[in-house]
Amino acid sequence: MKKLSLFICSALLSSWVCAQNPLSVHVLNLESGLPSAGVKVILEEQKEGKWILLAQGETNQQGRIPALYPENKKFDDAIYKVTFKTGDWFKQRQQDAFFPEVPVVFKAGSAVEHYHIPLLISSYGYSTYRGN
């Protein structure tokens, strides 16, 4: 019963955090079918042709970062880049990786409250899309 309560609280808290933060990411390993915990992720915003670091984090046990956008910063209509450090993640698992990182550049508008970027990875390929 205690484990169920913790699970429910965790799920509710995660939903609340996602609703409050405009950006979340999720990484899944296509080879194993499991979440990819421990992937380093960097968020940058394009300003005057340059990339400005906004935040960085690491995926949790579910392969997620539920709140990647910095707290106390207005979510502007802008071009952003999320870079997944996949090469480091595969190297830690003693696997080859063709793509050392996966940059995902996207245009966001304040009319949309939340952006979710899933990444499906394997040693020699990846896929991403705009989730919700």
> What would CATH call the architecture?
Sandwich
According to DSSP, the number of beta strands is 9
* N→C terminal distance: 30 Å
H-E string: HEEEEEEHEEE
Description:
The protein is globular. It is built from 2 helices and 9 strands. The model is unreliable at 1-18 (pLDDT under 50). The chain has helices at 2-20, 86-92; strands at 23-29, 34-35, 40-47, 50-58, 64-65, 78-84, 102-108, 115-122, 125-128. 20% of the residues lie in helices and 41% in strands. The chain has 132 residues and is an alpha+beta fold. The two termini are 30 Å apart. The strands form 2 sheets. Strands 1, 2, 5, 8 and 9 form a 5-stranded mixed beta sheet that branches. A 4-stranded antiparallel beta sheet has the order 4-3-6-7, with helices on one face. The chain has a single domain, classed as Immunoglobulin-like (Sandwich).
Question: Characteristics of this structure?
Answer:
four-stranded antiparallel sheet; alpha+beta; Immunoglobulin-like; disordered N terminus; 41% strand; 132 residues; 20% helix; five-stranded mixed sheet; single chain; globular
